[in-house]
UniProtKB/TrEMBL annotation:
Protein name, entry field: Translation initiation factor eIF2B subunit delta
Species per Swiss-Prot/TrEMBL record: Podospora anserina (strain S / ATCC MYA-4624 / DSM 980 / FGSC 10383)
Start and end residues of each stretch annotated as Disordered: 1-114
Residues of the signal peptide: none
InterPro entries: IF-2B-related, IF_2B-like_C, NagB/RpiA_transferase-like
Length: 455
């Protein structure tokens, strides 16, 4: 057969050399063997050297024989490929062929084919834009708390989308972490909690999805609060104060801020006004319901995000409240729709130090069309979403790629940037004037937040 004719010449020299080397090497050992058997505890240096040399020769012969056997078997496999039926052997299954093909590149390639990279189709000029991903639990840091694991997975799957919902989920998860924390002996809470406990949680959340502005601001405030404690403060009192601080943050910067913004913005809606909004933002929804609650009559036009379709839910909610609603499924025909509106109310994800707005993709188009049509463009945003240090002039610096709409042909950015010149005013939880402040006044608003005496 082909196996015998092709394998014998190739493997013949190797076994012959092996036998020669194995026969020649032990030839020096017979004289040493009786001495070793007679008195194994006392071996002369010459005998020890001969014994080691013999063992080395035996190992070398075994390696050579193994290589010769592999070399003789390889041609047999190649010659028999595709002849399984003629030789009476059953054909290989697809699963077996797949496993064999996975082992062939073991010389120069990986044993297991790598998963396709979700960012493989993104152009290099957008390589800096982050994207959410689901981190396997086996790859997480051992110190990540279960509550943080759940929050991170929900953020990666977009079960929690907007910035304030993510902020609240993060603070509640950190509250669980602090409750279960115990300071190790020889350490203090103010020096140990942040670097050894909180930082792994923060890194995990950031790996699941890029941190939003509200989360970044709250985490900085939390770290400042922890570092302000004295190393000699009792642990129980310090933990209790931290938990109270988190509760206060949730109640004041989220819940109370939401109520005040909705109330202040509802007062700005005039009787018989035609309001236009984009998509569905919780602050806009609460504002419109609040305006209806206090007895104002107005019409609402909703231009929906063609991907998220949150405007459909908003339209149903407003109609159930007795508000007249005109629904548009996309940005088509934006100019005539905006021309009939007197007040454009939009929700924001963040406002930068130069007054520019970071919001859902499509918001900039609506704001620019509204400003050009002579309508008021009002933005609703909590101060926890303000960024005093960074500025933004485009949508490519601070953004995210939508992981659900990312293909080799195209991808979608989650946010866009609206310049301050297209914004008439920003409504925050402050009650300065009517609650409507210029977008450029962000730094003054933050100073008033830190020091109320300035107002």
């Amino acid at each position: 057969m082909a196996t015998e004719s092709n394998g014998a010449p190739a493997g013949a020299p190797a076994p012959q050399d092996a036998k020669t080397s194995s026969a020649s090497a032990p030839a020096k050992t017979p004289a040493a063997a009786p001495a070793a058997a007679a008195n194994p505890e006392k071996l002369t240096p010459a005998q020890l050297k001969a014994k080691a040399k013999a063992e080395k020769a035996a190992r070398r012969a075994k390696v050579i024989e193994t290589k010769a056997a592999v070399a003789a078997a390889t041609p047999a496999k190649e010659a028999g490929k595709g002849k399984g039926k003629q030789d009476g052997q059953p054909p290989q299954s697809k699963q077996h062929r797949g496993s064999m093909s996975g082992r062939r590149p073991s010389i120069g390639g990986p044993l297991i084919e790598k998963e396709k990279d979700a960012r493989s189709g993104i152009p290099e000029c957008f390589s800096h834009v982050p994207m959410a991903k689901r981190v396997q639990l086996s790859q997480t840091h051992k110190d990540v708390d279960p509550a943080v694991l759940v929050a991170g997975q929900q953020m990666a799957a977009f079960a929690i989308k907007d910035s304030i919902s993510r902020l609240e989920a993060t603070l509640l998860a950190f509250k669980k972490v602090i409750e279960s924390y115990e300071t190790p002996k020889g350490n203090s809470l103010s020096r140990h909690l942040v670097p050894h406990v909180l930082n792994p949680q923060i890194e995990y959340l950031t790996e699941c999805r890029p941190m939003c502005f509200a989360m970044g601001n709250a985490i900085r405030l939390l770290k400042t609060k922890i570092n302000s404690f004295d190393i000699n403060d009792p642990e129980d009192e310090t933990k209790e104060e931290l938990l109270e601080w988190i509760d206060t943050m949730i109640n004041e910067r989220i819940k109370l801020a939401e109520y005040l913004i909705a109330r202040n913005a509802a007062r700005l809606i005039e009787e018989g006004e035609k309001v236009l909004t984009y998509g569905r933002h919780r602050l806009v929804e609460k504002t419109l319901l609040k305006a209806k609650e206090i007895g104002k009559t107005f019409d609402v036009t909703i231009i929906d995000d063609p991907y998220e379709r949150g405007g459909q839910t908003l339209a149903k909610t407003l109609r159930q409240a007795g508000i007249n609603v005109l629904y548009s499924p996309n940005l088509g025909g934006l100019r005539p729709k905006v021309a009939g509106a007197t007040n454009v109310i939009l929700g924001g994800e963040a406002i930068f130090a130069n007054g520019s707005l970071n919001a859902a993709s499509g918001t900039a188009d609506v704001a620019m069309a509204g400003q050009n049509a002579g309508a008021k463009v009002t933005v609703l945003c909590e101060t926890i979403n303000f960024d005093r240090e960074r500025v933004s002039v485009d949508a490519l610096t601070y953004n995210e790629i939508d992981p659900e709409r990312n293909t080799a042909e195209c991808f979608r950015l989650l946010y866009d940037n609206t310049q301050d010149k297209y914004i008439s005013g920003v409504v925050t939880e402050f009650e300065s004037g009517g609650g409507n402040s210029p977008a450029q006044a962000i730094l003054a608003l933050l100073r008033m937040r830190e020091d109320p005496q300035i107002a």
